[in-house]
Amino acid sequence: MKVIVSFLCTFLGIVAGFSQGSDPAAKKILDQASAKIKSYKSIQVVFTLQLQDGQGASQGTKKGTVNMKGNKYVVLITGQEIYCDGKTIWTYDKSANEVTITKVDPSSNTLSPQKLFTNFYDKDFLYKMNGQQKMGTKTVVEIEMTPIDKTQNFHKVYLYVDNKSHLVTSGKMLDKSGNKYIYTINSLNGAANLSDNSFLFNKSEHPGVEEVNLTQ
What we know:
12-stranded mixed sheet, 2 helices, about 45% strand
């Protein structure tokens, strides 16, 4: 799950300071995608995740949802739920009925879902444009991204940006063990009605849940 969220959080905020040596053409496309997402006050994204092994064989498919509003987010994917109200993160493991509670660390290199759509090309990556290709009825631009921090558990990220809508439509991450995580955005609602309470973990909805509080 850690790898899954790391990619989600790469794939979906903006800080200044772009990587030296990165492609200006790719930067222009990423700027457009970022500006489009930043124009939305709240976002709900429905996505599909496919995992492939090093030989390209499918290891299963999961469906999930990401809700975002300012610095708050919720990630819901098969067997896992992650809630963040901007200060605290609750990571719930359904199979163990256990929730781990941690504090948001702004100085940490940990990626957040805001980066999944808007902060994916800042000082943490080198990036370049690999050209256009057809995906179904859409023409997309492939952006190849390489993390500067070589201790990351992935070594390549590919983002596919729709030429017309300027939105990221899919992405692919290659981890160091050869696995591929392939994301497809099924729908994106830039006017989602999301209450602040929806970004809090509700203990009453998870009877008997065991808490592991790492904030104390």
